[in-house]
Design goal:
The protein has a domain of 195 residues. Helices cover 73% and strands 0% of the residues. It has ten helices and no strands.
Length: 298
């Protein structure tokens, strides 16, 4: 079976293996350098973005540790969502098939992580620093906007509330159950981060297209833009089908995503010179230290 290895290890290995294919499919223009040269360039020019990712992930992990003590402080708000929309989401499991469930499970996990990681890497690969700034800032802003809802506005997943709603994401395979049992508190339904994060990336790419005077047909990132748009549609259906989200979680996610895109667009010009300064300062220190070491060696 494909998930005999731990799911996290499978996810990381698949992301690494898929990256060259993603570059080939979605690169806005060819870059005349070898793979190892690309890796060195990205590390030298964009290590600040990697550092931001690490900071964001560390902060998110810390906030997750605070979730359990705070959870339920203001009560369970699932009843509000349930009263507004009832059991309509059951209709999305009217047609259920093992292969469909498997596809949506894998796409739910893999494509979301891929978009979060690859959007920044693709812009960096193309040397589009301002766009890369927006991509990595988007991740942090989305989490800042969504976390208060997850901590203080607890909404349980549909499969834990609606009779007859199957938990297809969690129970389709032991690997998925083990993985999500460790990372998913099952009461962070509103808003949908899959919809919010993906929509914010879509909006930021769209604005970048308009700012540079392109249409979809002429936009260098058009295939990636279409990929993100297709994933929005897939996520919108799959999060309901898999027994995770309520219908109202989708507009909530889109709202958070659009707000995040506005904030990112406003703060990026302020962050850009600071990232450049930090990169040049550290790179200069490293270059000076390396030069002194080589002089002593000779």
């Amino acid at each position: 079976m494909v998930f005999e290895v731990p799911l996290k290890a499978w996810l990381v290995a698949t992301l690494i293996a898929a990256s060259p294919v993603m570059f080939w499919l979605f690169r806005p223009w060819p870059v005349a350098e070898k793979i190892h040269e690309t890796a060195v360039r990205l590390l030298r020019e964009y290590w600040t973005h990697l550092a931001l990712f690490i900071v964001i992930y560390t902060m998110k992990t810390y906030v997750d540790t605070l979730h359990d003590p705070i959870r339920g402080l203001l009560g369970d708000f699932t009843w509000i969502i349930h009263r507004l929309e009832g059991d309509v989401v059951l209709l999305f499991q009217a047609i259920e098939h093992s292969w469909l469930t498997w596809f949506f499970n894998v796409n739910y996990l893999f494509s979301y992580v891929l978009i979060v990681y690859f959007s920044t890497v693709l812009a960096a690969y193309a040397g589009d620093r301002r766009l890369a700034n927006r991509m990595v800032l988007n991740v942090g802003v989305i989490y800042l906007l969504a976390v208060p809802f997850y901590v203080f506005f607890n909404v349980r997943v549909t499969s834990h509330v609606i009779p007859g709603m199957d938990a297809l994401l969690y129970h389709s395979h032991a690997a998925f159950l083990s993985f999500f049992a460790a990372v998913d508190p099952l009461d962070n339904a509103w808003p949908s981060l899959h919809m919010g994060m993906t929509f914010a990336f879509f909006v930021l790419f769209w604005w970048n297209m308009r700012e540079n005077g392109h249409t979809v047909a002429t936009y260098p990132y058009r295939y990636y833009l279409l990929f993100i748009g297709a994933q929005l549609v897939l996520f919108g259906y799959s999060i309901l089908y898999l027994g995770i989200h309520w219908i109202l979680d989708i507009p909530g996610g889109l709202l958070i995503g659009y707000l995040a895109a506005i904030i990112v667009d406003e703060i990026e010009p302020l962050v850009h010179p600071r990232l450049i300064q930090a990169r040049d300062t550290v790179n200069g220190i490293i270059a000076t230290g390396y030069a002194r070491l080589t002089q002593k060696a000779t």
